[in-house]
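Section 5.1 Outputs to date
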Amino acid sequence: MYEMPSDLQYKDHLRKERIRIEDELEMLRDKDYEKLEKKLERDLSRVIEGIES
């Protein structure tokens, strides 16, 4: 059964997402494409592992 996150948990998740997106935007603005690519590959790998387990 799926439990809905509390408001506090949801807001914490959103804050983390905001920081992640801001970091990625900064990498784009700085034209640090290699670092951004590696970060996105790590993120994608973690998502795939989470889905498969």
